[in-house]
Amino acid sequence: MPDRPGALGAVASAVGMVGCDIKSIEIVETQDGHGIDDFMLDIPTGVLPDTVVSACQEVSDVHVLWISRHHDSGTLQSDLETLEQMTRDPQHAAEVLVDSAPSVFHCQWAVLVDRAATPMTISYATAMAPDLDGEVLASVGDLATAGSAEVPSGWVPAWSESTLAWACIGNERAIMVGRTGGPDWLPSEIARLRHLSALAA
């Protein structure tokens, strides 16, 4: 949406007009006079997602980039809340970050990769994560640096097209997070993942 006074209110009003309740709004990125905001909505029974998209796009200069069902019944967690949990249990900070990542980064799954192993292995994972072996992990990208990638349908058997992001946790581990079908990972999201990963080392 345009980064100008009243734009957020106009979108909120449009969403309300079709009967949706806004649970939360997160500013994801702001640049070049536009902002990308993430809305968590409670859409009532009988209201189609397309109706919500149409209502938003009737607002001047507003475009819907992505809409999907959130896996966690609307429960979101902030970077700060995750950091506080990591601080309370520093011995398992990396595992705490993996558990928190789906809510913090609005994705479906996260895994902790043991980069020191040959081949690389998964040492910890959320329940919805795919079964990733060393060959798949090596094909994704350079896990020694932060990055992202799009992988096609079938990249793991029975899995559809996904967008992945990762960051190092110390010299031997990395966190990888995934979204089934998208949206793409923004540079600001990868920077946040890299920052939290550094604190989990």
Can you characterise this structure?
The chain is of the alpha+beta class and 201 residues long. Helices cover 31% and strands 26% of the residues. The chain has six helices and seven strands; from the N terminus they run αββαααββαβββα. Helix 3 (79-88) runs antiparallel to helix 4 (93-104) and helix 3 packs parallel to helix 6. The chain is globular, with a radius of gyration of 18 Å. It starts with 6 loop residues before the first helix and ends with a helix. The mean pLDDT is 92.
State the helical fraction: 25-40%
Q: How many helix segments?
A: 6
Shape: globular
Instruction: Report the span from N to C terminus.
Output: 36 Å
Binned strand content: 25-35%
Element-level helix/strand string: HEEHHHEEHEEEH
Report the strand count.
7
Strand order of the largest sheet: 4-3-7-6-5
Structural class: alpha+beta
**Largest sheet: number of strands, sense, barrel closure:** 5 strands, antiparallel
Q: From the alpha-carbon coordinates, what is the Rg to the nearest angstrom? A: 18 Å
